[in-house]
Design brief:
The protein is α+β, with helices and mostly antiparallel strands. It folds into 2 domains: about 35 residues; about 200 residues, no CATH class. Helix content is about 45%, strand content about 25%. The protein is built from 7 helices and 8 strands. The chain has an 8-stranded antiparallel β-barrel with strand order 1-2-3-4-5-6-7-8. A hairpin with an 8-residue loop joins strand 7 and strand 8. Helix 2 packs across helix 3 and helix 3 packs across helix 4. It is elongated and about 70 Å long. The chain starts with a helix and ends with a strand.
């Protein structure tokens, strides 16, 4: 009876021991790699909501035909500025970092935002034309020609001059995100010490899964920044 009980216990515990050992080995040799954040990471800062809100406020100011916020957000979808974050581990759970907003990406994002706004603006003009009893063509090219004739410039150029800035300035974004210094990781927290005149410290919860890195100052909100590994350790 005892031999039978021992055999049953051995049959149960031995596989469990093998599984536990395998899990520990995986955590030691594979999962631990996720603690090494070395590499060049690229994130896209979504500017679509801010651009849409700014555009809508201006349209309401000039008493244009009402346009649903959802429509503006749809037009602005994909409007984002790229941010480069380079991390280099120099010791266990610590290293150096450099973060920067890419100016060329900012310029492209700004242009895309105004082009999206121009599309919505032409649609509003079309509504106004119909309300005024206009019977001519209201396709995109025709409305664009009317804008150019009326304002002496294309729709995008007109909006850049007359409408408010749809994005924060490049300098504002650079002041918020640009910088370099040292970092430490512990208990799922990435702490970055900036080497600038403010010597500011930024703490962010982080999760790395393969080539994705998520940084968030507060998991209770939805302002997490998602980075994709471009080159480095995977």
């Amino acid at each position: 009876m005892r031999k039978g009980l021992k055999f049953i216990l051995f049959a149960i515990l031995f596989p469990a021991l093998i599984v536990s050992t395998a899990i520990l080995a995986y955590l030691q040799f594979f999962a631990s790699n996720d603690r090494n954040l070395s590499g060049q990471w690229i994130a896209k800062l979504d500017m679509s909501n801010q651009a849409a809100v700014t555009a809508l406020d201006w349209l309401q100011e000039i008493e244009a035909v009402s346009v649903p916020m959802q429509d503006l957000q749809t037009n602005m979808q994909g409007v984002a500025v790229e941010m480069n974050l380079t991390l280099e581990q120099t010791a266990h759970s610590e290293g150096t970092f450099q973060c920067s907003i890419l100016p060329e990406s900012y310029d492209a994002c700004s242009q895309a935002a105004y082009e999206a706004f121009a599309t919505a603006f032409r649609e509003l003009l079309t509504q106004r034309l119909h309300m005024a009893g206009y019977t001519g063509s209201t396709d995109e090219e025709a409305v664009e020609a009317l804008v150019t004739e009326s304002f002496g410039m294309p729709t995008v150029s007109y909006l850049k001059i007359c409408a408010p800035d749809l994005l924060p300035s490049l300098e504002e974004l650079q002041a918020q995100y640009n910088g370099s210094g040292t970092y430490q990781t512990a208990n799922g927290i990435l702490t970055r010490q900036f080497d600038d005149e403010t010597s500011r410290v930024q703490e962010e919860s982080y999760i790395r899964k393969d080539s994705t890195l998520i940084l968030s100052e507060d998991f209770s909100d939805h302002s997490s920044v998602i980075y994709t590994l471009q080159q480095g350790k995977n």
